[in-house]
Amino acid sequence: MTTPASAPARIYTAALVVIGDEILSGRTHDKNIAQIATWLGVQGIRLREVRVVADDTDAIVEAVNTLRLRNDYLFTTGGIGPTHDDITVDAIAQALGVPVVIHPQARAILHDYYTGRGSELTEARLRMARVPEGADLIPNRYSGAPGIRWGNIYIMAGVPHITAGMLDALTGTIEGGAPVLSATLGCWVGESEVADLLAATEKAFPGVQIGSYPFFREGRTGANFVIRSTDEATVAACSAQLTQVLADVGYGAVEGGI
Amino acid sequence: MTTPASAPARIYTAALVVIGDEILSGRTHDKNIAQIATWLGVQGIRLREVRVVADDTDAIVEAVNTLRLRNDYLFTTGGIGPTHDDITVDAIAQALGVPVVIHPQARAILHDYYTGRGSELTEARLRMARVPEGADLIPNRYSGAPGIRWGNIYIMAGVPHITAGMLDALTGTIEGGAPVLSATLGCWVGESEVADLLAATEKAFPGVQIGSYPFFREGRTGANFVIRSTDEATVAACSAQLTQVLADVGYGAVEGGI
Hints:
The structure is a homodimer. The first copy, chain A, is an alpha/beta fold. The first copy, chain A, is 36% helix and 26% strand. In chain A, helix 3 packs across helix 4 (88-96) and helix 8 runs antiparallel to helix 9. The first copy, chain A, folds into two domains: 12-170, Molybdenum Cofactor Biosythetic Enzyme, Chain A, CATH 3.40.980; 181-255, Alpha-Beta Plaits (2-Layer Sandwich). In chain A, the strands form three sheets. In chain A, strands 2-1-3-8-7-6 form a six-stranded mixed sheet, sandwiched between helices. Chain A is built from nine helices and twelve strands. The radius of gyration of chain A is 23 Å and the shape is elongated. In chain A, a hairpin with an 8-residue loop joins strand 6 and strand 7 (147-150). At the A-B interface, helix 1, helix 2, strand 2, helix 6 and helix 8 of A face helix 1, helix 2, strand 2, helix 6 and helix 8 of B. Strand 2 of chain A pairs antiparallel with strand 2 of chain B.
């Protein structure tokens, strides 16, 4: 049986739980939301919701159990290091109702990593081989300690460049749908002046979303309009129409945005 | 009746809902989480949880109603502009079960703002005077359109410098408790080498949290240890003890962090 051409494309969604007091204190500026959102977009997966929670077991359990059930995928960042404040693995195991075990391959990776540097695999470092029972590993090319996959949950590092390496390792391994495509039109106009035009244009193209992102730059007011759809021809047609209606009221739109 | 000296200080908590497809698409890097977290810390309020949700009524309603009830304060950012994708006010009014009304003072502010610039208060711009019934306004010194307070909910702009102006206007108006104080010690050490020392030191100082934030810089591994408590003397004593135990195993700690 083939899928009828008119069937709507399946949409794959993901959620992200950012775990860490350092984000909630304002000390550290999160970089993982944008990094993971962008990566997911390329895989054809939409980041639908994000929660930032403290290093607190109950908070992690609640977020993980709510979000893993209503999304195709759940990613977490942070709290998988060797210190006492790294409680992500224990909290997720509790959420799943499975014990925490030492993953033999993770132990071997850590053993090789530390002995190869003239050091040793201490008890504290062995903490980084602990996983919820039944987990697979996600390679970490930078610092030995692997990420963890359990079912549809991907447990990643908090340090952004290590997270990036883990995402690289996962590229192409996770099933997604049609990526969301977008075109951006920039315009030196106050968005309130063309609000009706934007709404009418969006309405004329089913399945399209037009986002309006105002800015103030060089002493002038402007806005970027981002047209999103999974269909390339639709994005192009909507972009052309919006350019035309903006020109009709005297505003030149800049392709690619300002 | 006086409060016994031993009574634990009341802790004030806040949650933040960041509203916007542009954050979830990865197009825009959020700056409001860190900005609001830092500002709340100074007010003696702890940011306990953050959710990032799409421009979607159901998602906003769920987040607002869950978080406003279990925190002293709820902040939202984004979605209060004049365009069709700005649905925050309608969604929050729905969450609260109250109608949306035009706030007379907001209408007057917007009227003065636009006529003062040789323009006029159009229908689209009047959208920015809409509030959940019963709301007060939060001044916006930059672009006219005010923020909104309803009960313990503070509805703010998404553009970070406008949010900053609204936070300035709120400074000193919201009741908080004792601010969380912190000291940072930086050390050129792999955190896994001193994990046990960190845990033991934290345990020796009830009410203290020690966070460990590893980094890799100048080809070397290091970590910053952040000691947090509401009591200044306790932070100082814990910091001194951690410096000593690190020195005992051969590591010099740098006050203020690396």
